[in-house]
Structures are given as structure tokens and as C-alpha cells.
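Why do we care about 3D structure at all? Because function follows from shape, and shape follows, mostly, from sequence. That is the central idea of this module. The next example makes it concrete: a single protein chain, its amino acid sequence, and then its structure expressed as C-alpha cells.
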Amino acid sequence: MKADVRRSVQALHEHDIRPVSFASPYGEFNGEVIKEAEIHFESHRKAWGVPDDGLNDLTRMDRYAISPFSLTNTTTFEEVKKLIDRAKSEGKWLVFLAHGVVQGKPEPFQIHIDTFRKIVQYVARNEGNVLTVKEVVGNMVKQGIRNGVSVKQ
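And the structure:
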């Protein structure tokens, strides 16, 4: 596993791609994977076996345990709207995970483009603060935060 991660990172670097976050293949990880991710990346995103809501409390969140909400072929706009409203009212970071946004019939881990457009339009109309993982985690790193508390000495 370590060699696979290192080879992948090296290949990306050879193309001037500098990823900041790691998502374990198939969502499978353990402590060893997290330790390797800590060497090469500033964060790790979970997939399976996490709270279904994708809401992350930045005051307590471990940046190597980011929880996403999966946008799938059964996800409805109304479901996502409730999560967006909840994230805004609770001051939490809502992270979405999608394997594809498609025009045709979506596969299980894809979302239809019309549903995705409604989500984007809703966020824009409600002045949602949209940040990438790189932006949020970069801010945490600058502040010396690993899991809601400073790790700077």
C-alpha cells in the first residue's frame, strides 16, 4: 500500500499536480493508510461508514477524517436543500462526494445534471460560502490545526 501511494504521488508530481487530499480507494482505510496519507497529503476524505449527512464541525473535525455526503442517483434536491440549510444554520462545512454528474441516466454513484444545477443555484441564491477541500484544509494547516485543536508548539 505504501509503495502504491508513493508511486501515485510521484506520477502526479511528474505532471505538476500537487494533490492536498487523499480519498482511499473504495473508501477502505485503516490507521496505516492514514499514517501514509499524513506523509503525502494535508487531509483524507472518508467514504463509507460515516455519518450520512456530510456535515463537518470545523471546531472538532480531524482533517484526516473528512466526512462527505454522497450525491447519488437517488439523491433528491429537497434532501440536499435540507442539508445545506442545516449546515448554514449550524455553521458547519458540508462536503459533497460525487463520482459523476451526467446528462443521461445516472449510475448508482452519479447524480443527474438537472439535480446538480438545482443544488448549485440554491447555494448561489442563498449566498452559500463555497470552499474547496484545498481552501478549508489549507486554512487549517496554516493555523496548525489537525483535529479542531492547534498542533503548533
